[in-house]
Amino acid sequence: MTSQDDSYLHKKVMPIGTVCELTGLSERQIRYYEERKLIFPKRTNKGNRKYSFSDVESLMDIANKMEDGIQTSEIRKEINKRKEKTSGDKIKQNMIRGQLNAQFNKGHYN
What we know:
Blueprint: H1 3-10, E1 14-15, H2 16-23, H3 27-35, E2 42-43, E3 49-51, H4 53-67, H5 72-109
Antiparallel strand pairs: 1-3, 2-3
């Protein structure tokens, strides 16, 4: 999947009502997950929440974990670890890309 294909997954365009229909969760549950800092919807100028397809996937994952008895604090720790790993992976990719570009340009232009 390319980054262009991936972009629609993260575009926050869905209102909470649509997310409720897709997930089977209530607005109250979704807002609770937001309060617990498990999900981060975008807010419109009028304060309405907007969600992405990746948010819907996250909400389903959170709901399943909650059903299994996992506490929100544990879910938040897992989310934070995942974000740190993703951030670290991006840094590594950028470093490698920079090294390859430097090597290619050095060899190509000399």
